[in-house]
Structure formats: structure tokens, C-alpha cells
Amino acid sequence: MLLFSFVGGAFADRFERRRVLLACESTSLALSVVIASSSSPTVRRVDHRVLLTLTFAAAANMAVDMPARTASTPSVVGMEDLSNAIRARDHRQQLAFPIAILITGALNDQFGSGRVYTGSLLAWALIYPMIASLRFHSAGGARQHTRYGRERGAG
What we know:
Elements lengths: L4 H10 L2 H22 L9 H30 L4 H30 L1 H8 L3 H10 L12 E2 L2 E2 L4
Antiparallel strand pairs: 1-2
Helix pairs in contact: 1-3, 2-3, 2-5, 2-6, 4-5
């Protein structure tokens, strides 16, 4: 994520953020399907290089997704509600993370990690349509007619 965070911020500033979010969610879903299929009981053993590559790809995807998601917030909630939206998001994350760890641990113990991860793909049935249904326009302020920091045609 550290390597791609600058690129992610540039994507969030350069392109329409709703489309960036949809592309990131599609990529995340595809990576999750590959990870789930590699952890299925029919697969004997997955090469560690494959897992590292998938992890690297997922982190790169998140490095693009998170800046676009954060930069979209003012367009979705409006500037007057921005501080409340940020506060609510932070509270939900701080509450959800420890609860998710406990639930995931209990489910892994009961069903095994491969089945739990595969079952988590059902969340995409909610996530993707929710993002697709958002109706906002949010593009960054990056000057699109610049090259190397100078206006085209300028000396």
C-alpha cells in the first residue's frame, strides 16, 4: 500500500471517483474469488509466491480505493455534514474491527478458514450494487491539460 499510495491519490484526483470505486470493487471481487478458490478444500497447497502476489495486488488495489473513497465523501454527504460523516465512519470502523475479528475467529473455528472466506464473497452481493447505485459526481481538481507541471503550449 505504501508503494502505491501516491498513485492512488493521483487516480482519485485525476478520474471520476465513482468509476474508480467501481473499478476497485470489481478488482477486489476478482482477487477475492481467486483467493477463495485457492483456499478451497480441493486445492492441496498454494505456492507462497502466488499468495504474496495476490496480497500485493490486493494492497495495490486498496491504495487506489481508499483515497478515492475518502475524496468522495464531501460529494456524497455535502460539506455541511462532512465532519459528522468522518466521525461516524471512524466510529463504525473502530467498533466493527474488534467485533469482526471475534466473529471471524469463531466462524473459522467452526467451519474452517477456506469456507468462511468463500462465504464472505456473499457480501459482494450487497457491496457492489450499493456503490453502483450511488449518484454523485466527484472528480479531483487536477489540471488535465498539463504536462510535467506546465501548461501545454507554454514555453
